[in-house]
């Protein structure tokens, strides 16, 4: 039996859908308050259970016949107010999954993030060996994913059969994340663009790779950076604006404009007027230039990524 955590989320739900299309039987866990996606309701060979990854005993009840685990559950936030919850969910929850996989001898594919890798220097490719180093300006999300990943490496040292994937920014249709909100802003005529750069990968590529790795038992005890294309935010916005026939953002942001913007949104959040969409951590990240290598995964699986223009076309519909 295959277990998927975070089954109602953007990535976890596609993992489930892809496994069902392969004729697999899936156990999926969700929080009691989470809503099952319409396309995953009343599916043969799919069994939903309410369980909290921070509750070891509720998880233990689900693990009875489990032999493979896709751990997709986690929290994403760049709000400093959420740091404790990030550690509880991402680190504490992953610790429980690792311990149960060890106990039940289940194989694990863990969905981590490039936030758990080192940042690299200017014009230097970030890869699986890039060393993560703590510094005071690191986001709480980065710290939580690094610490969660350490739990998986600890499990591997204790005999856990596991593979870690570190995706860059994941895009795709039917996404309600902050990335999807960004596409919406471009469609509404966004004027400003950040000056940094980053990597992007389609969710379908990410899920396909996760399943291929799970089904390759000779691949274990290692991690893979998953990235299709490196782009500056300016190039990224220009490509999408061209597809949706809108004027692309034309005004570069600088650190002073961003500092004013995130402080203003923080003030509004303190006054309970709105929840901040731009935080200090997001502002700092948006002006950094990151370039990512996908050499290890493409060589290991001989994998070809979906054309990036096709991904953007699908998102635009």
Summarize the structure.
The chain is 41% helix and 16% strand.
Strand-and-helix sequence, N→C? EHEEHEHEHEEHEEHEEHEHHHH
CATH homology-level superfamily of the domain at 2-172 and 199-229 and 292-304 = NAD(P)-binding Rossmann-like Domain
Low-confidence stretches: 256-274
CATH topology of the domain at 2-172 and 199-229 and 292-304: the name is Rossmann fold
Number of strands: 12
The total of helices stands at 11
By secondary-structure content and strand pairing, the structural class works out as alpha/beta
User: Approximately how much helix is present in the residues?
Assistant: 40-55%
As laid out across the biggest beta sheet, the strand order is 3-2-1-4-5-6-10
CATH class of the domain at 2-172 and 199-229 and 292-304: Alpha Beta
N-to-C CA distance? 35 Å
In quaternary terms, these chains amount to single chain
Q: In percent, how much strand structure appears in the residues?
A: 15-25%
Chain-averaged pLDDT: 86
**Overall morphology:** globular
